[in-house]
Amino acid sequence: MTATRRRALIAAVAGVAALVGASVRAEPAQVAATPPMGWNSWNHFAAKIDDATVRAQADAMVKSGMRDAGYRYINIDDTWEGTRDASGVIHPNSKFPDMKALADYVHSKGLKLGIYSSPGPKTCAGYEGSFGHEVQDAQTYAAWGIDYLKYDLCSLGTQMIAAGSLDKAQEIQLAAYRKMDAALKATGRPMVYSLCQYGFFQPWRWAPSVDGNSWRTTGDIEDKFQRMLQIGLSQAGLAKFAGPGHWNDPDMLEVGNGGMTAIEYRTHMSLWALLAAPLLAGNDLSTMTPETTAILTNHEIIAVDQDVAGVQGDRVKVEGGLEIWAKPLAGGAKAVGLFNLSDQPAYLEVKFSELGFAGPVRARDLWAAKDLGAMAAYKVEIPAHGVVMLRVG
Ligand code: GLA
After folding, report:
1. 85 among known catalytic residues
2. Quick check: pTM over 0.70?
3. What is the CATH number of domain 314-392?
4. Fewer CB near the last or first residue (10 Å), C or N of the chain?
């Protein structure tokens, strides 16, 4: 979709409140019982992605310790698509000579392979989409051994705008996502179904009805502190829509791509963990620094994201650039993010009674890997743009 068309669509749907009366099916969380973890090609490689690079990322995911830390999916984003043959079957372009062999390779590493398409005739980068070929494409993905589909609205937006009313536009969108859900199920192969439509029509209200395992809640992230923050903080209030099998998705990680400092990337990782967001690394895993690896593989932060209770965290308090966010964990403890989003170092104090604890409770600083003892409140100096992540209780 061109920027102009996308802006037109955003304008068309702005201000829409509750839209869809679709009933939500209570499906067991067969896939994505906890937020999906993996890597996606788009943020770093965009169109410069090919078979050899994907294999190198799979190798690096194992070698760096990311697989052992819980990362599983190696996801190919847009620009893999070639043309359809006379029977309508989609083939990859020359960058991906044999998708089945690539899936076999990724599987041999104990990892899973993801792919990308659009419900419209064209993908966001202008490649072949799945419109009119949903059943065929789902069958092709299953035959290749694909484990995850990111389904990105893009050119369907043109049809939604042409529909002339918000209700009709949403009907088109809902039917398209429902169609691919049915096509994926008909293959019998479990695949994570990741909806990508930038938050149009409040997908947290209707995406569970098409058994979406995750749905993008915002436009695209950028490797810039303020954009990351804008997206992350906009998730306040969405916690009640997430849970095992279905997650709000504030877009992929930018950790290690170079546009933020290590302090800022720790803030990014912490906020995504508190949000129970999918953790899809978006950097080049084969060249990352030890500092980037340490941020992506910090097991205490990952444990916050992957907590089995599957409760998304939310904002507790804001005072200027200082924010406190908390996420309930299984067993009654809470993960607590103390954020200093201002441009100067600052002290922040959290009283644990504000988080629902009576009396002194045990606290641990997760990035410092340090037990702090039992206390009723904690005051700490936090660097500019930084975070202190605690586990309390
Ligand atoms: C959209 C999505 C991105 C990426 C690109 C690919 O912008 O939001 O995450 O998939 O399309 O073209």
Report:
1. no
2. yes
3. 2.60.40.1180
4. C
Q: CA nearest 115: which of 21, 40, 208? A: 40
Residue entry with tokens 């990782």? 269
DSSP 8-state class, residue 301: H
Distance of CA 99 to the CA centre of its chain: 24
Q: Which one from 50, 77, 137, 152 is the annotated catalytic residue?
A: 152
pLDDT in tens, 266-294: 999 999 999 999 999 999 999 999 999 99
Residue nearest to atom 8 of ligand 1 (CA): 220
Active site residue 220: yes
| Averaged pLDDT for residues 128-149 | 98
Q: Does domain 3-305 have CATH number 3.20.20.60?
A: no
Question: Is the Cβ atom of 42 under 6 angstroms away from ligand 1?
Answer: yes
Q: Is 77 in the pocket of ligand 1 (CB under 6 A)?
A: yes
In the reported structure, the alpha carbon of residue 222 is separated from the centroid of ligand 1 by a whole-number distance in angstroms of 12
Counting residues of the chain whose pLDDT is more than 70, the rounded percentage is 93
Kindly give the distance from the C-alpha atom of residue 67 to the centroid of ligand 1, in angstroms, as a whole number: 25
